[in-house]
Write a structure and sequence with these properties.
325 residues, alpha+beta, four-stranded mixed sheet, 34% helix, binds coenzyme A, ACP_syn_III_N, Thiolase-like
């Protein structure tokens, strides 16, 4: 009998502090940096972002989202045998943020580890958990994408700081004989690291290199559209499904223009595309599970729908997961 990994619960959490484009423009103006709501909306579709207060860490956001997903799934934390957290902004060098979440949830004994694939992190983490369930190595898996991305932004660089936000999204996967995740495919091209990176580290007690996110926006834009389009075709081919059969496209939420280009390239009408970047900005690994959770909870995504989840980001990394909800 084929074992599938089925999503049986979703959750999301956004820190309560909402910063509108106008708020941000005012804050930057005090430092002599010019931006505007109009520029940000025209180039990105972003209207606002949620930002964590100082001291709030990725594990805190992740735990909130996890609790909601567990409640939705109707299972207890102790029933989990796998916890995977996708993040580029872990609380510590170690232990992993997954271990911190495990302790917060009160689970003992589950395998727990982090996945680092930046904005593709959730899709990578979901694929890993799917493979563990299919192989019989886990039955109940918690997969989280969580970031305090504001902690790696250079708040004096207007070309990047306006684009991102903080948050966490989570799903609970369970082994099932009913179809859940149908196909997945992941890719990376490390030779493109220079177009999007935070090339710093802590070593010998000091920050070495540049601790802030740097990006060639136009190069990322082009590569994101072409790689996601190719990945969508590949994952559908793998599952023997036509693109037109997809009920919902849930792409990484970086920029409305990237999402619109992608939708047009794939021939997927805008009514079938979930967009949250306008409200959340780019929350990196949290963006896809936050969008999935929002669309499930507002009744757009229903049981039986076919959703194409897609991530793309630093590394350069990208990938897709096709899931029967
Ligand atoms: C970042 C992005 C919005 C910039 O849009 P763009 O149309 O490429 O804009 P450019 O970088 O060419 O900059 C155009 C001008 O706007 C200025 N500008 C940049 N940020 C600005 C801001 N926040 N406010 C006002 N002006 C800004 C630039 O300095 C430049 O001015 P100049 O023409 O006088 O030199 C766009 O490239 C993008 O979305 N790329 C993808 C980024 C992304 O999603 N990354 C994450 C993927 S995981």
């Amino acid at each position: 009998m084929t074992i599938f990994a089925k999503i049986i619960g979703t959750g999301g959490y956004l820190p309560p502090r909402i910063v509108s484009n106008d708020d941000l423009a005012l804050e930057l103006a005090q430092k002599g940096i010019e931006t505007s709501d109009q520029w940000i909306v025209e180039r990105t579709g972003i209207h606002q972002r949620h930002l964590a207060d100082p001291g709030v860490r990725t594990s805190h956001l992740a735990t909130h989202a996890a609790r909601q997903a567990l409640e939705d799934a109707g299972i207890a934390a102790q029933d989990l045998d796998l916890i995977v957290v996708a993040t580029s902004t872990p609380d510590y060098v170690f232990p992993s943020t997954a271990c911190l979440v495990q302790a917060e949830l009160g689970n003992k004994g589950a395998a727990a580890y982090d996945v680092q694939a930046v904005c593709s992190g959730f899709v990578y983490a979901l694929t890993t958990a799917d493979a563990m369930i299919k192989a019989g190595r886990a039955r109940n898996a918690l997969v989280i994408g969580a970031e305090v991305f504001s902690s790696i932004l250079d708040w004096n660089d207007r070309s990047t700081c306006v684009l991102f936000g903080d948050g966490a999204g989570a799903v609970v996967l369970q082994a099932s004989d009913e179809p859940g995740i149908l196909a997945a495919q992941l890719n990376a091209d490390g030779s493109q690291m220079g177009i999007l990176c935070a090339a710093g580290n802590v070593s010998h007690g000091q920050v070495v290199g540049d601790p802030f996110l740097r990006m060639d926006g136009q190069a990322v834009f082009k590569l994101a559209v072409t790689s996601l389009a190719a990945s969508a075709h590949q994952v559908c081919e793998q599952a023997g499904i036509a693109l037109s059969d997809i009920t919902w496209l849930v792409p990484h939420q970086a920029n409305v223009r990237i999402i619109n280009f992608l939708g047009r390239k794939l021939g997927i009408p805008s009514e079938k595309v979930v967009i949250t970047v306008d409200q959340h900005a780019n929350t990196s690994a949290a963006s896809v599970p936050l969008a999935l959770n929002a669309a499930r909870r507002d009744g757009r995504i229903r049981a039986g729908d076919l959703a194409l989840l897609q991530g793309v980001g630093g590394g350069f990394t990208w990938g897709s997961v096709l899931v029967r909800c």
